[in-house]
Amino acid sequence: MSNETISLLATFIAEKILKQPSKVIAADEALISSGLIDSFSLMDLALFVEDTFGVRIEDTELNAETFDNLDQLAALISSRK
Hints:
Blueprint: H1 2-17, H2 39-53, H3 64-67, H4 70-80
Helix pairs in contact: 1-2, 1-4
C-alpha cells in the first residue's frame, strides 16, 4: 500500500503543485524544509490526502515533522486507515 500511496502523492505534487509532471520525487526527499513546497501548497496537499485517502489531517500536523517527505506522509496515512 505505501508504494502506491507514495506514487500517488509524488504524482500529485509534481503535476499539481510544482507544475513539473516529469519531476521525480524520492520518497525521502525533503518537501517543506528544502522549500520544495510552501505553506499554501501544503494546504493543497493536505486536502488531496483527505479527499483521496479518506483520512483526517489535523491543522497541528501541517508541518515539517509530519509532512516533510513522502515516507512520513504515507506512514501517517497508513496509521489512519
